[in-house]
Design a protein that fits this description.
Oligomer: single chain
Structural class: alpha+beta
Number of strands: 4
Strand order of the largest sheet: 1-2-4-3
Shape: elongated
Order of helices and strands: HHHEEHEE
């Protein structure tokens, strides 16, 4: 290799030397420096995202603590009324009663409902109204959809605050 190098003219050795320096610098950048810079950039992005997540988690923690101090303020079921009557009247107002195929009482504080071909949005709106207005919560729900936006549902509803009799 040394003989080959010595056999080159001075101008040729200078050009080859500059070429080797350029190739070495390019390889140094591509194989070492660029991967390190990209890794640093990814880490900076991840750190920023985790800081944002930390701030959000802190806010949620504070909100959860405030809610915990507030206690459970959800409405309780009015035990002077019948759960079946409340569910029937509410379903009639919401327009979901026509979809009800079967209603099975589970003692005084529960009921299982089977609904066919009910609009999902109507069902959810009705269940939220039952919870908020009457203190009847969904204990279990099984939904099956054959068509977009329409479901068959099997629901177990419980009167909040009412013990099983």
């Amino acid at each position: 290799m040394r003989q080959w190098w010595q056999a080159r003219a001075a101008s040729e050795r200078r050009m080859l030397g500059l070429g080797m320096i350029a190739v070495s610098a390019t390889l140094y950048y591509l194989l070492l420096l660029e991967p390190l810079l990209l890794a640093r950039e990814r880490l900076e992005t991840r750190v920023a995202a985790e800081r944002t997540l930390g701030v959000e988690l802190g806010a949620l923690t504070a909100e959860a603590a405030a809610l915990r101090r507030q206690g459970d303020t959800r409405r309780l079921f009015d035990a002077t009324g019948s759960l079946l009557a409340v569910v029937n009247a509410s379903a009639a107002r919401a327009g979901t009663q026509r979809a009800t195929r079967r209603m099975t009482p589970l003692g005084a504080s529960g009921v299982t409902l089977f609904l066919d071909d009910v609009a999902f949005t109507d069902l959810v709106t009705w269940l939220v109204a039952l919870d908020v207005e009457h203190g009847v919560e969904v204990e279990r729900a099984a939904l099956d959809s054959a068509n977009p936006g329409v479901v068959d549902a099997q629901l177990t509803l419980r009167a909040r605050g009412m013990s099983e009799r």
